[in-house]
Structure formats: structure tokens, C-alpha cells
Amino acid sequence: MGFPIKIVSQEESYEITLGEEVVIQSIGWKQAAWRALQENDISVKAHMKLLETYQGDYLQGIESDWNLEERKEIRNIWLQIVDNLIKDTLQNKSPSSRNISQISALVSFDEEARILVNEKL
């Protein structure tokens, strides 16, 4: 029985080969987020789920050039999800205080997103 991940050292770098059964959460999250952002009608449920599963910056605490671009991309997508929910909430003739509270709670760990929610809602 083999391991689902193979790591080979190559001088000053590594080559990582992943088996089919390995799931990378950031890739799955980004794919789901792009699908949600491309929909004409916002699915509040899908957007809320994406907010729930985002747990902070990609590889937070690891400051290295190789992960900064991915971190920035995922964060920007997440902020787009937040902004879409805000716009949808404001377009609703009777915005739900439950949705507003839920959005606020789901972004409470992030100062930039908190400011965005507080300014717009």
C-alpha cells in the first residue's frame, strides 16, 4: 500500500506528487466560489457556506514568496463573496436582520471585511 503523497527533494526545492484521493481544500473552495460568483442570481445559502468554510488567510503564519499570490487571490475571492452578500441584502426590500447578523459574525475575525460590512450595512 502506497502513500497518497510523494515528496522528492531536488537540490534546493521539492517535488510533490499527489494521489487522486488527496483533496486540497483551497482548490475546492476556490472552484465553489467561482461557480457562486458566476451565477446570475446570488445563492445566499451557497455564499454563506463559503463564508463559513473560509477560516482566514491561506497558510496564515507562513510568510514565503511561494504562497503570497495564492493567499491574495483566495482573500480577494472571499471579499467578493462578502460584497455580493452585502449587495444582495441591500437589494432585498426587507433585509433580514438574521442575514445581517450572520454575515457580521462570519467576517468578525477579519478587520477589512468587518469595516466593509459595517460601512455598507
Contiguous low-pLDDT stretches (5 residues minimum) are: none
Number of helices, counting only DSSP H or I runs of 4 residues or more: 5
Total count of strands: 2
Q: Residue share in helices?
A: 55-70%
Overall domain count: 1
Class derived from helix and strand content: mainly alpha
What's the main sheet like? Answer: 2 strands, antiparallel
> What's the overall average pLDDT, rounded?
86
Strand content: 5-15%
Radius of gyration: 18 Å
Short structural summary:
The chain has about 120 residues and is mainly alpha-helical.
Architecture overview:
With 121 residues, the chain is mainly alpha-helical. It has one domain. It has helices at residues 25-38, 44-53, 65-91, 97-106, 111-120; strands at 5-10, 13-18. Strands 1-2 form a two-stranded antiparallel sheet. Helix 1 (25-38) packs antiparallel against helix 2 (44-53) and helix 2 runs antiparallel to helix 3 (65-91).
